[in-house]
């Protein structure tokens, strides 16, 4: 396979820097997969799982201090700090060369360096981007093979072009002290050292397809978003595609693979993507989306035949499991699994585990890596080069209170504001405390490769270029009652909420106008077949102006560091919300 001269030169440079013992150029073939799997097993990076029950599946345990994205060690290396903005860590390109580059010196001595070419986006699509990852982790190479279109297919797409993202990765010594994930949006380059985990190490995913791509999209007039994409088809055959931006571990995979409840007969779901969407205005004035990935790197805990049967079917073969619990018979388990844990479990660190220990058997951020093509609900059109047109977009997060089950924005600018002010209780997907409320604007705060104020401005510009923009909604599946219980059943039943939104997008569906947006009336959302009382529904839909007036202050604090860069449209929406809240009745309840 002819390889671009630019690639050869760069591989030579990196080889002399990292000094690997050997270099393996990946072609993406099945024979190569088998070779890499064997190598991984002999190195102890992978354990083969039960061949009958989990054919083609492997198990991996990552280092104890390397189990989630480390945002404090993630940097945007743009020319100026202002270009990275107040929500990103910034390092100057010079400083990165001084501080981070030396860590790569000789780091691959005695090891193999894999040259992993890959496409983000459908093969042959003019929207796709090519990357080449150089890595000394066979686990990473095998994961990239599932998550991207990897191998000769990427060399074909690249041809003699120099336009590819240079993704340099080494495990280093896995110490957080010497861990850096650096992005160079101007040089189209990524350096990652010291981690073998997920978003820190699979550089096509968050690093390329979000941080680098978002900066590119700003220059070229498109959007790279932390969004699922799914088609929803009514019994009458009306098909709408939607996207959902939810922060890490807040429900994208589950919504992307939703299975309609029995009482919603005839509804069908077409999965396109579960984590990342690239969106472009089309010639028809609509917004079109592609999924740049080829696999799912999904959260294991909570995944069951009850909550997400499509995911369970997807991960029954050819799947790599990371940091879940392991049974003696070579099967896997995690908290929330349908089956009982059994007596012979090893936890995610390889220690014997007992339910009464009070510890989790699987790490809360344990994951599966599985090919998207294995998903029973995968849409036949999931790899269409031009993507699918989007009717509605959903911003959602984990909020125990304040935020209703769903509400509809007044339009694109207000919808952008709803996304911009998204906040969520933190999860185990990133290191740090879990359950703390923090801003995660557009679910992109950890993934935006440039100043977020410019990013909101870019959203507002994109909206102006659309004659048929998607309707924008805010959702919250996670509102809790007095005992701390989730008030809404969630999962498949979320279709009831989506259905109301699609009705609204089509000019149907009833709503009450409130200060924050259009909220469903008490009976707007179909509750046939679920046990959600009027009182619970009222609580789910409750909008308390006092709580929102408080939220308004937090929003102002959040916007303040952006100074004059904050776009006028966002400021206007913040002021308009304040005004509506001042004239809102004290405690409105959803009307019948
Ligand atoms: P990333 O891959 O980290 O970007 O996460 P994601 O947004 O795809 O999250 P995912 O769908 O994997 O869900 C994370 C966790 O939330 C899992 O434990 C799910 O079981 C749980 N979850 C998802 N949807 C719902 C829901 O509707 N209700 C409740 N209560 N839990 C949910
Ligand atoms: C997330 O944290 O949002 C993920 C997993 O989807 S990772 O690939 O680690 O970013
Ligand atoms: Mn994600």
The CATH topology of the largest domain corresponds to: Phosphoenolpyruvate Carboxykinase, domain 3
- The top level CATH class name of the largest domain: Alpha Beta
Q: What ligands can be seen in this structure?
A: guanosine-5'-triphosphate, sulfopyruvate, manganese (II) ion
**CA-based shape:** globular
Helix content: 25-40%
CATH architecture of the largest domain: Alpha-Beta Complex
Structural class: alpha/beta
Calculate the terminal CA-CA distance, rounded to whole Å: 66 Å
| Portion in beta strands | 15-25%
Give the radius of gyration: 23 Å
- Our count of domains comes out at 3
Assembly annotation:
single chain
Instruction: Give the number of DSSP strands.
Output: 29
Biggest sheet record: 9 strands, mixed
Uncertain regions spanning at least 5 consecutive residues? none
Query: Helical region count?
Result: 16
Describe what this molecule looks like in 3D.
This protein has 16 helices and 29 strands. The protein has 3 domains: 5-45 and 71-221, Phosphoenolpyruvate Carboxykinase, domain 1 (3-Layer(aba) Sandwich), CATH 3.40.449; 225-292 and 380-583, Alpha-Beta Complex (Phosphoenolpyruvate Carboxykinase, domain 3), CATH 3.90.228.20; 296-374, Phosphoenolpyruvate Carboxykinase, domain 2, CATH 2.170.8.10. It is globular and about 70 Å long. Strands 1, 4, 5, 6, 7, 8, 9, 10 and 11 form a 9-stranded mixed β-sheet that branches. Strands 12, 13, 14, 15, 16, 17, 23, 24 and 27 form a 9-stranded mixed β-sheet that branches. Strands 2-3-19-22-18 form a 5-stranded mixed β-sheet, covered by helices on one side. By secondary structure, it is α/β, with parallel strands linked by helices. The structure holds guanosine-5'-triphosphate (GTP), sulfopyruvate (SPV) and manganese (II) ion (MN). Residues 69, 198-199, 205-206, 248, 275, 297, 429 line the site of sulfopyruvate. Sulfopyruvate is lined by residues 69, 198-199, 205-206, 248, 275, 297, 429.
